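ESCALATION

Customer reports they have been waiting on this structure for their group meeting. Please prioritize. Original submission:
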Amino acid sequence: MADFARLMPRAPVPPLRVGTVGGPCWRLCDQKPKNFTLVLFYRGLHCASCKVQLQEWEAHAAAFRERGVRVIAVSADSRERAERAAETWGIDEITLCWGLTLDQARAWGLYVSEGRAVGDGGVEEPAFFVEPALFLVRPDNTLFAGILQTLPFARPRLEDVLAGLDAIIATGAQPRGDYTGETRQAAE
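Update from on-call: job pushed to the front of the queue and completed.
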C-alpha cells in the first residue's frame, strides 16, 4: 500500500510547480497574495462536474480578488487538454494549470483515480487524474485549511467558501485541525 502525505494546518505545504494555460510555469512559492492562495485541484477536461464548478468560480473571480485571495485550478491534464478546457469552458480569469505529476499529487495527499472510461462530457479519461480538493494556503506557504474528496460530487458550495473567507479574514481566525494531543500552555 502506498504511503500518502497528510498535510497539517500551520505546517508548510509541499512545493507546487505546474504549467499554466497561456502563461509561464506557476510556482506556489512565488505567490504573495494579501490573504490566501486557494489551490483548487480538479479532475480534468473529462469531468462535467469540474466544468460546472470552474465556470461558477470563474464568474465570481472578482469576489476572490476583492478578498485578497488568488485562485488557481490544477489538474494532471496535459497542456492540450487544459487549453481545450479553458477554451470550451470559458475560463480566463482563474489561472488554469496543467501537468500535476503523480508524485506531486501524493505529496499533497490527493486521491488519485485511474482513467478507464469516457467522462460525463464524452471526453476520454487520461491515464490518471486527481479527485477534487481545495487548499487555503497562507502567503508564507503554510496550510490554513484543506478539503479532500474521493469522488466528484458534493463539492463545497461557492457561497460557503466565500462566507468562510469573509469570517476568517474579519476575525483573524486561526487554523483548526492541528491538535496533537498535547495541551498548549497559555502565554504568561
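Sent to customer with the following note: The longest helix spans residues 158-171.
Escalation resolved.
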